[in-house]
Structures are given as structure tokens and as C-alpha cells.
Specification:
4-stranded antiparallel sheet; mainly beta; Immunoglobulin-like; globular
């Protein structure tokens, strides 16, 4: 989904701590050298508000995708994925979220 050369790095069932069979969404990260890509998969099966945001670790070079999606939000890209923070939100609307997840560990962080 991210393009040629990207390989899956991590997948996180959401909400965090949810048994994978009960997940409402899944956050995926892909890497291609130092570049990164993220996708938020909608596992509910009906259109939901989704928000996906990634930046370089210094807060620059951000990419965002948001709206109502049936399948997924993204892909969003970051030029330097090392420790890049990712924010994933999902719900019936932007004011009624059941997923509000932020992490700095979707990509390599050393």
C-alpha cells in the first residue's frame, strides 16, 4: 500500500491492549530505508471518522490524512522515520472517539 520498497515493520491492534480478534482498528507501519509510511486500517466494517498523523522526531515534515473512511486512512509518509511520532484516532466522529493513540515506537527507534 505504501509503494515499492516498503516492508511491514509493525502492526498494533487498537484500542491498545485489545485482543487482536476484538480490534476496531489496526495501525501499520512500513519502512523503506530511513523513510516511513503508516496506515490505519478500519476493522469495524462501516464508515468511521479516522485521523492519521506522522512527523519527523523534531516535529517537522508532517503528513496527515483524515475523514470518513470505510477501509483505511493513509498512507501517510515521513522522510526520516527514526522515532517518528504517529497519532491514530478513530470514532463515530472527531468528537466521539474510541481510538486516540499516540506512539513514538511505530518505527525503528535507537
Amino acid at each position: 500500500m505504501c509503494g515499492t520498497g516498503y516492508t511491514l515493520f509493525r502492526g498494533v491492534p487498537l484500542p491498545e491492549g485489545t485482543d487482536p480478534s476484538q480490534r476496531l482498528g489496526t495501525l501499520y507501519s512500513y519502512q523503506n530505508g530511513s523513510k516511513g509510511c503508516a496506515i490505519l486500517d478500519n476493522n469495524v466494517g462501516v464508515s468511521q471518522y479516522m485521523y492519521l498523523h506522522v512527523c519527523k522526531v523534531d516535529g517537522t515534515g508532517c503528513d496527515t490524512d483524515s475523514g470518513n473512511f470505510t477501509e483505511y486512512a493513509g498512507p501517510v509518509y515521513v522522510a526520516s522515520s527514526v522515532c517518528a511520532p504517529v497519532t491514530a484516532k478513530m470514532g463515530q466522529s472527531s468528537s466521539s472517539l474510541y481510538i486516540n493513540f499516540k506512539t513514538e515506537y511505530m518505527f525503528t527507534c535507537d
